[in-house]
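In response to the reviewer comment on reproducibility (Comment 2.3), we provide here a single inverse folding case reported in full, input and output, so that an independent group could reproduce the run without further information from us. The structure tokens appear first.
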């Protein structure tokens, strides 16, 4: 369904299990950034009523996920650490087209967002199937389903608002680019790391 070029090695979960506090902190900040991204899309495209409505739903869900992760952190007696840079997302951001019309920029921002959601969904699936902690396995299985919904929403809106862009062609370019950079990740206890 996701069409990713490279699957996450399940052994990544061994790295995650070595520092649960780090993955949870990183995950919490990923949810915060996802909510902020949805709000940014609203800010720059306020005239698109259907898009605004759906982005507000996603922003609210992402904040709910942040709350859920924070609750897990507190329940385990851990601490929400400082915000982390997400080098994977920063590399994806470089691939976003900066020229063209506002509509073209919107479509590429939606594809960028879909790409992040697709990889997050895939990582949550790997966690849910391989982590020994049963509570976290269920937690990540539930979140995987939500991320898949966000992925399809972003991709659907990119198709809806395409103007001069062949979205299927551009999505394939995103898939190829993500496949070329993801080989540098999967070596740390972060969602995309």
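Designed residues, in position order:
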């Amino acid at each position: 369904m996701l069409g990713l070029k490279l699957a996450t090695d399940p052994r990544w979960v061994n790295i995650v299990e070595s520092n649960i506090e780090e993955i949870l902190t990183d995950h919490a900040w990923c949810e915060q950034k996802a909510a902020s991204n949805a709000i940014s899309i609203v800010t720059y495209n306020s005239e698109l009523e259907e898009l605004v409505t759906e982005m507000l739903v996603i922003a609210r869900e992402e904040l709910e996920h942040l709350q859920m992760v924070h609750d897990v952190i507190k329940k385990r007696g851990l601490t929400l650490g400082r915000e982390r840079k997400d080098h994977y997302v920063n590399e994806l951001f470089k691939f976003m087209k900066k020229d063209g019309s506002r509509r073209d920029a919107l479509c590429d921002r939606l594809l960028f967002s879909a790409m992040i959601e697709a990889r997050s969904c895939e990582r949550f699936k790997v966690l849910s199937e391989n982590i020994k902690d049963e509570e976290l396995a269920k937690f990540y299985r539930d979140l995987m389903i939500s991320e898949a919904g966000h992925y399809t929403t972003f991709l659907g809106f990119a198709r809806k608002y395409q103007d001069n862009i062949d979205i299927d062609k551009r999505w394939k370019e995103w898939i190829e680019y993500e496949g070329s950079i993801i080989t540098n990740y999967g070596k740390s206890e972060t969602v995309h790391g």
